[in-house]
Amino acid sequence: MASADKPINTDVPEKDVFALHFLQSLSNLRRQNTFNSPEKTNDRVKKIKKAAYVSMARAAGGTNRLWSRALLRRAAKENNKIVRFPRRKKRVTCLRRRSNRRDPVEEEEAERLRNLVPGGGGMGTSKLMEETAHYIKCLSMQVKVMQCLVDGLAPK
Amino acid sequence: MDLTGEFEARSYGGGATREATRLESLHLGDEFRQLALPPENAGGFTALLELPPTQAVNLLRFTDSPSSSSQAAAVTGIAPPPLHSYGTLTFPSNSVLMERAARFSTDYHQNGNVSGTSSVPSNSSVKTEPAETDSSQAVNNRSGKRKDSDKKAKSSTKKKRNKSSEENEKLPYVHVRARRGQATDSHSLAERARREKINARMKLLQELVPGCDKIQGTALVLDEIINHVQSLQRQVEMLSMRLASVNPRIDFNLDTILASENGSLMDGSFNGTAMQVVWPHQVTETEQSYHHRQLQQPQQWPFDGLNQRAWGKEEDQDHGQ
């Protein structure tokens, strides 16, 4: 238990994967009849935003990352869809040890981070930081993709 | 007098074997062994070392109350030299203790990465053995030492603890103070390991977030990380708003989107036609590496074929509109 795990894996797929997932979700959105016509852009904005996050979660890790699982579960709940995830072995022990992992000085910051990162409530501090690192990488990738898209569409 | 002189000289010489032989040479051997050293029957030297406190107690008992038992009387009847010897015999036991302490500290120093030495006395074995029997021995030995120096450091800030841990890692040994047996050993060890884990991940995050290298102090670094995450999320929201406003203006044809995507994604330039040739190769490579949809059409780029494979019915419906 006292051994440190040396390789912390925060690999993130290439931009193309994110682009493909996002474009696919956008085309799915466009298929909906009520998408393009209404003048109310707020709903569209929300839908696009949600599609962006969901596609990012799928592209980045699927169900292998805690934050992506939490994101997908949250999105599915809003759509009233039931999503099933394969059970991970470590889940129960994580819950049991939660109380032992929250004593340090930086607890307030960790709390703020938990509010920001999806699924942060159930993680210990060290796991939280791992997930944050991966989350930051994926977010920046998604932002790049969306920026390219917007730039590509704008001049026309 | 000569005997006592010998005693003192040899006791400071430090050889415990000499003490045993001296005891015998005093001709006290039998009574002494019966009275004071019954547990030493096993093996003279080592037994002597194993039980210096009891031996000292026994010796002291003899010096204090010589008349307590007939055996004591028999012993004291032997004459002044025995009393002297008893008086000085306490010395050897003390010196034995001192030797043990010295040897213990040197052993502990050498014990840095070696597991399981039996000569380490009990009050340290509580600490080092659970550390040493772990799978990652070196790490845990160091962590045990670090923990001790932490307890001495009495600093509550995380930064200082980090510094002391780094210093101890560089030194080949740690200055060890005599410690009491501590009940929270495994807890403090685990705490130490956990603290290291968190620090490692903090370093990782520092590398990710631009501008975090210069900052000292974990609270500020965490602040910076939180700001970065918030800014990224705000950017996503901004871009999605822009996309939503852009969408209805354009005939959102996936062909044109992908065509324009080529340049912007690959090089940041807008050479759509030139990039169309490049894109399929790069896309196929990355796609293969991630086991996503099969976009394999290396030499050709028939868009309809691609769309049929990748997007399936959706594209047909779009074109149908």
UniProtKB/TrEMBL annotation, chain A:
Source taxon at top rank: Eukaryota
Residue span, IBH1-like N-terminal domain: 18-78
Compartments reported by the entry: Nucleus
Keyword Transcription regulation recorded: yes
Signal peptide range in chain numbering: none
Pfam families: IBH1_N (PF26576)
Keywords attached to this entry: Nucleus, Transcription, Transcription regulation
UniProt protein name: IBH1-like N-terminal domain-containing protein
Taxonomic source organism: Brassica cretica
Organism ancestry: Eukaryota, Viridiplantae, Streptophyta, Embryophyta, Tracheophyta
From TrEMBL, chain B:
InterPro entries: bHLH_dom, bHLH_ZIP_TF, HLH_DNA-bd_sf
Keyword Transcription regulation set for record: yes
Entry keyword set: Nucleus, Transcription, Transcription regulation
Gene3D superfamilies assigned: Helix-loop-helix DNA-binding domain (4.10.280.10)
Positions of the BHLH domain: 182-232
Localization per Swiss-Prot or TrEMBL: Nucleus
Biased composition (Low complexity): 111-126
UniProt feature, compositional bias: Basic and acidic residues: 163-172
Primary location recorded for the protein, binned into one broad class: nucleus
Domain of life: Eukaryota
Name under which the protein is recorded: BHLH domain-containing protein
